[in-house]
Amino acid sequence: MAFDTSGLQQWASPGELEAAAGDIASAGTDVSTTVDGLSSTWSGLSGSYQAPEQVEVLAVFTSITPHGDVVDLAAGQARTALAAFAGTVRELEAERTALLAEISSFEADPPTVDPTDPDSPVDAAQQGWLQGDIDRLAGRYDDAVTTCVAALKGIDGTADDALTVLSGPEVGLMIAAGTNYASTHTFKRVDVIASRRVPMPWQQFRFTPLNPAGPLTAAEIAGDRYLIVDGREVHISNPRHPDHALTVAERYTRNGFANAVDWRPEVNERFYESSSAYRARVDANPGDWKPAPTSSTPRPTFGELPDRVKALKVGGGAVAVIMAGVTISAERDQAYDRLLVESPRMSEADRKARAIELGVVRGGAKTTFDVGAGMAGAAVGTMIGGPVGTVIGFGVGMGISYLADQDLPEWLGGGSVKDGFADFAENVYDGGKEALSDAGDAISEGWNSVFG
Question: What are phi and psi of 194, to 5 degrees?
Fold first, then answer.
């Protein structure tokens, strides 16, 4: 039985791939440079070019630079994909050389089942293992081809910048985990030993005794004390006394709050009022939910919170706002890049305005989806109750958000659930805008038909 080595033949040449990658990148740079030159040349004619179509012509050449940048970026992406493929092939070639030598050795002196028997058949097991190695290596080459083709097909002249990474599911999961953990903090009233600065007591003011070697007089004990400053006596009650501006630290005890962790979920008041089953479960197992605050166990004000919990609350809110802004900004940048490719004739001003619109609509939709996922997880957690309910609720909310960011298989249309939700929001927004425009036109026509 001969070996099937067809999968190890007609592989792409790494050298030719790298040369082609370099040529493509150079061509992209040349296009971008040429476009920049054309834009600069035509912009320089603005003071001398006179024609009826002057504004339109100059406007066209003013906004062409981004298109050259798209070609340059796309060429760079092609170079990256081909260079990566060439590197993989070069690594696989070394393994192929060793495997072909092993095949030649096998065919030159096939191992037999019984080496002492000249008529013993070839060891089929060893032959099968070697064929398996051949097939696996061929499969890895095919995988590299598939990866390269997917990368080349995915080139659109747009870049995944740091904002896109920051708004991705992994970063979102870390923030959600921190926010969820912060929500487990509750508070208990405690006596807090604190320190404050107070004016220095007069008993500690410096003074010059009447009899430095003897005891204080009755008047000095009562507070009739003087300090000699520059040859003059200054009474301790005089604001000019140097110790009047001094303060000292004073330790005191006050009521306050200390943070404690309670993994039980809170009772959902809406569920409690509307669901008899949920109400019965809570009433039967009150210890599985956090107790509601009462007049005897009030919630602390923000100023009464421990500093660490203040940081958690402020930081969590700030990060949530920043993440929403990052998502909107990333969607805006992606929309701008997409419009460069899909609508090359659109003016730069219109393209930027449309990109901002889509960034707000699509970024807002994705942020709303994440908030909804968190609410769904909280609802699941409170329905279960107990620390287990909180943990499961965390997992459900974070899992929904994470999975919604993953691309679906092609047979389900590709893209992610969040992208689909953002597409829906975009279509609703565009439909509403169009309806308002049509309504405005109808009102205008009606007004003109009545009043002329």
Answer: -120, 175
